[in-house]
Amino acid sequence: MTKSTDHQMPELDFNTPALKRHRKIRALKDRMAGMGIAVGGSSVILAVLLICFYLLYEVAPLFSSASIDAEASYTLPAEDQGESLYLTTEEQAEVGMRVTSNGSIVFFSVADGSVIDTVKNLRTEKVTAFAVESDTSRLMAFGYEDGKALIVKHDYRISYPDSKRKITPVVEYPYGEDAVDVTDFAIRKLTLRDGSDSLTMAAIGDTSSAITKVTKDVNFITEEVELSEQSEPLPFVPDVASMLLSGNQRYLYVATRSGAMSEFDLRDFDNIELKNELSLFKDDATKLVSMSYLLGKSSIMVADSSGRVSQWFNVRNDETNEEKLTFIRDVKQPVALVDLAMEQRRKGFATLDERGLVAIYNATSTRQVLNEKLSDNSARLISFAPRANGLLLEDSKGLHFFRVDNEHPEVSWSSLWGKVWYEGYQEPTYTWQSSAANNDFEPKYSLMPLAFGTLKAAFYAMLMAVPLAICGAIYTAYFMAPALRRKIKPVIELMEALPTVILGFLAGLFFAPFLEENLVATFSILVILPVGILLFAYLWSRLPQQIRWLVPEGWQPLVLIPVVVFLAWFCLALSPIVELNVFDGNVRGWITNDLGITFDQRNALVVGFAMGFAVIPTIFSITEDAIFSVPKSLTQGSLALGATYWQTMTRVVLPTASPGIFSAIMIGMGRAVGETMIVLMATGNTPIMDVNIFEGMRTLAANLAVEVPESEVGSSHYRILFLAAFVLFIFTFIVNTIAETVRQHLRKKYGSL
């Protein structure tokens, strides 16, 4: 008898209080995790955008135009003293000075035009010529009918009575109150140049011209300065409009009203020669308006009746070793110019045209920062305040004072990214030189050498890192034994934790001198090591199987260690012999003298090795993970269909892992581009543009590290450094965008494998 029993499955209750509570908690955790991820991702995007906006905030003022505001207008101070020959102000732009046609010097308040003091002409003779040595030296000269010249200097003394600043103008006579004998004829045109050893003055009369040098000798007994004069005749040039003496008193430039320039060589004062003749005008100019020096007394600025202002300076010829006055660049206004004013501390100038319109330019960048009508067609003179924060303008109504805000006139896209012809250079160049010991120095802010150095350092680093890292990752992920892989991969990834400042320190102080002393060994290793490894692999494959099977599958790299060590030792041991017999014992001298290649101890080769060593772990780790993550079913299916391991690797694994490999390369490149300490310590840190592997460079990141702590907040230098940071930011953004685009394309293309 068979008994049948019913087995009923117990009913499961999924709505018990405990399960409901568990589901609620899990749902809450999911929502919190989602919110946390969203907030974190949004915060990262917001932080990046804030960085971008802050950089733009600091950079934007570089490209803003200047502004000018009228502050005071009044009748001409001491108008009864005659017409104005020269206008200027003192440092604070509170006290102005006007030199009149009768030789008087009038000091007045810039705020309201009230006369502070008037210094009358010391001589009874009529003033027939007037010259200013430079705005910064404050030295002037009056020429008279009797051929004499009175040297005058205006100065300003500051005191604080009752805790209030008081500026007292004074007039000094550095060569005495007695006029200096210059010529024996009435002076019509006059120029002067003062130096520590001598004062030179050139004068032109109605039919004659002469030059006088006043030599300063210090009496070694009394320590008094003794003056001795020497005068020499000059070839007469008719219809002279302007004259200039060079800053070193070597050359005299005489320009006629028609724009013909005569250049005299004064180096042999007993035998003055006409060095050169040239024309300052183009076809549309008919009259010379003004000729004066820029700051530094190197560049001559010529204004003509066509509205053009041209810049000229001496350029040395390599073949003849002679200097030649050369046209460099020009700017143009649509109508004829009336006056030209130079900034006293920058390479800037202002033009005044017949319409009363004032334009402000920077000479080097040729950037126009202001073009505004400030007067009617009766305007006659303009002058900058010493800090270029004020402008005096004289017209038929009197004097007008304007406040000028012009912070960054020297910056333009052409000066940042184009070739610029700087004073003292033989040709236009890309130059970064932000500071110097000389006050007359002109900052050079070309970003091209820094961008070039950044790409150069990254290129050589990637040239070393990419092949080693990718090939190492391929072998580690696909061919190496799992037990060995578990040891090798963490060691290589641990390399990334090594501070780059240590790598830079070792590269600069140890590896660079070692590389210089073992150049032959270094380059021979790059050739012999790969060839030796391939030869050893070939010989290993020809050994009997019993010997090869002694090494387990995937552990073969351990056998290569002694081979690599031996080949490296062999190259180092052979290096002195090769250098002695092939390069006469000095391979660096052979590179420099025979090949004509400049060699710097800290160069791109050192950076390539050091920074490549730092980038390898990043590329290796990401590439190895990408290859190792390829599904085993793909490799097993390929092998089952008869493909070899190499065919499977090249045709299945690598295409599938290509998005990850490309990302690894781009991330490694981003690391190389942004690297600071290695390139700072292991290169010459010189901002030059040279593809030579034996020359150094300066990168954008290294330049920021060096110069940001020393820059003045708010200055052009400071903001251009922020611009360099923005360029680095944009470059990284572009690289990452390209990387993501290519990665998505590769994923779509090979995602079906």
Description:
By secondary structure, the chain is α+β, with helices and mostly antiparallel strands. Strands 6, 7, 8, 9 and 10 form a 5-stranded antiparallel sheet that branches. Strand 16 (251-256) and strand 17 (260-265) form a beta hairpin. Helix 3 runs antiparallel to helix 12 and helix 4 packs across helix 10. The radius of gyration is 38 Å and the shape is elongated. It starts with 16 loop residues before the first helix and ends with a helix. The model has no long low-confidence stretch (mean pLDDT 88).
Give the key terms.
transmembrane; alpha+beta; four-stranded antiparallel sheet; WD40_repeat_dom_sf; membrane; five-stranded antiparallel sheet; transmembrane helix; 15 helices; 753 residues; 38% helix; transport
Topology:
Layout: H1 17-59, E1 67-74, E2 84-89, E3 95-100, E4 105-109, E5 115-119, E6 127-134, E7 139-144, E8 148-159, E9 166-172, E10 180-181, E11 189-194, E12 198-204, E13 209-218, E14 225-233, E15 240-245, E16 251-256, E17 260-265, E18 273-279, E19 288-293, E20 300-304, E21 308-316, E22 323-332, E23 337-342, E24 348-353, E25 357-362, E26 367-373, E27 381-384, E28 390-395, E29 398-405, H2 413-417, E30 432-433, E31 444-445, H3 448-479, H4 482-494, H5 500-517, H6 519-541, H7 545-548, H8 557-582, H9 587-594, H10 604-628, H11 632-640, H12 645-674, H13 677-682, H14 700-707, H15 716-750
Antiparallel strand pairs: 1-29, 2-3, 3-4, 4-5, 6-7, 7-8, 8-9, 8-10, 11-12, 12-13, 13-14, 15-16, 16-17, 17-18, 19-20, 20-21, 21-22, 23-24, 24-25, 25-26, 27-28, 28-29, 30-31
Helix pairs in contact: 1-15, 3-10, 3-12, 4-10, 5-10, 6-8, 10-12, 11-12, 12-15, 14-15
Protein name: ABC transporter permease subunit
InterPro entries: MetI-like, MetI-like_sf, WD40_repeat_dom_sf
Main location: membrane
